[in-house]
Amino acid sequence: MRRILLSTAKILISGALLYLALRKVDLSELFSRFNVTSLFWIGLAIAIAFLQIFVGVLRWREISAECGAPLELSRAMRYNVIGSFFNQTLPSAIGGDAVRLWLVARAGAGWRAATYSIFVDRAIGLIALAIMIVASLPWSYALIADPHGRSALLLVDFTALAGGLGFLVFGALQWRWLKTWWATHHIHACAVIANRVIFSRSRGPAVVVLSLAVHVLAVVVAWCVVQSIAAPVGFSDVFVLVPPVMLITMMPISIAGWGVREATMSLAFGFAGLATNEGVNVSLLFGAVYFIVGAIGGLVWILSAEKAAQGSAPLGVPE
Fold it and tell me: Fewest C-beta atoms under 10 Å: which of 33, 86, 157, 178?
């Protein structure tokens, strides 16, 4: 019953925020801006979204190997593409992570190693996104003159950054009880692994570059969407505005970020002095690109060995 109520609440939040956001959009005017060139840009956005998934796979493999759950490249790519489908269908922004965890655990890695690999992967991605937003603050302040917009940006970003850095500091603590107390030992173990990955001479530089690349590619996807409807928005605007929206959309309070993303993008565009309806237009098409990617992921899931082997013996993870 609790899960049903939470899922219902998320559906209602998505629906309510989408309704409020769509009141600012003339859908017939939006569709009238589509032409053959628009299809090219949308197709390019989908291709870049798959490239983003692949880059995320490269990072995840580095982290999962450190967690004792090594994955073949093809298997990891398949799991991430399948995860993109469940991100769009489960009532959470992290539903795909839960499915990836289940797949890795069933593949023979075990629940602990699988959970650690997913949790650390998500944490490092969040830290990279927060750092990227902080690094772009000089340009954000040049674009966003509204004091409320600046305050909201600082609050959201520094909260995420403080949480991420606090997580790393937590992993550096050597107090014995952190490793044995039931409430802290799993989180502490994940934080230790995150520190080991980030500050490793062999894995660290690659993980940092890949983490930043994942978020930059999301910005490029948004830019392709802007180009598809010839919206009067520059690349620098997209680069500054999209990452904070992505950060807020990570909150698991809606279905695949729908509604939250549109409302936040509308506010972000308004704070930047841009047309709020263009923010909703860009957000809707941005979400549509990832919905299409998720639909392809659903097809991969239907045809996958993991789907066919449900309930059977573990599939095995390579040593």
Answer: 33
- For 23-62, how does the pLDDT look when each residue is reduced to its tens digit (9 = 90+)? 777 778 888 889 999 999 999 999 999 999 999 999 999 9
Contact 141, 133 (CB under 8 A): no
Count of H-run helices and E-run strands, the chain: 15, 0
What's the full length of the chain, in residues? 319
Closest CA to 149 of 265, 19, 282, 233: 265
CA dihedral 135, 200, 247, 94 (to 10 degrees): 170
Please give the model's pTM, rounded to 2 decimal places: 0.89
| pLDDT(316) > 60 | no
Torsion angle defined by CA atoms of residues 128, 131, 133 and 135, in that order, rounded to the nearest 10 degrees:
-130
Mean pLDDT, rounded, of the chain: 88
**Cα(194)–Cα(183) distance, rounded to whole angstroms?**
18
CA 103/CA 315 separation, integer angstroms: 9
Direct distance between the N- and C-terminal alpha carbons of the chain, in angstroms, rounded to an integer:
41
